[in-house]
Amino acid sequence: MLNCDAFQIGRQKNNSTIGQIKRTVYNILQIESKVRAGGKSVKELNVDGTIA
Questions:
Q1: Rg (CA), the chain
Q2: C-alpha distances in angstroms, 16 versus 11, 13, 48?
Q3: 45 φ, ψ to 5°?
Q4: The predicted structure's pLDDT at residue 8
Q5: C-alpha neighbours within 13 Å on the C-beta side of residue 3
Q6: Residue 51's pLDDT band (boundaries 50, 70, 90)?
Q7: Which of 13, 14, 26, 38 has its CA 20 to 30 A from that of 20?
Q8: What are phi and psi of 37, to 5 degrees?
């Protein structure tokens, strides 16, 4: 029982860290896309970064 709880806590910590990293990477990509597009919003960009 104790081992199971510790494992669950470990997984939760790991998931939140991965989530934070994913959000950070996403934010960086959004900023880079905006800069490359000269300030256009990400929604106006195609997946490869070209302006739609």
A1: 18
A2: 9, 5, 28
A3: -100, 145
A4: 67
A5: 0
A6: low
A7: 38
A8: -90, 5
Residue type, 28: I
| CA gap 52, 48 in Å, rounded | 10
What phi, psi does 39 have (nearest 5°)? Answer: 95, 0
Instruction: Report whether 51 contacts 37 (CB < 8 A).
Output: yes
Contact yes or no for 30/44 (Cβ under 8 A): no
Q: Please compute the mean of the pLDDT values over residues 33-51 and round it to a whole number.
A: 64
Query: What SS3 class is residue 45?
Result: strand
Provide, for the chain, the percentages of residues in helix, strand and coil under a 3-state DSSP scheme, each rounded to the nearest 5: 75, 5, 25
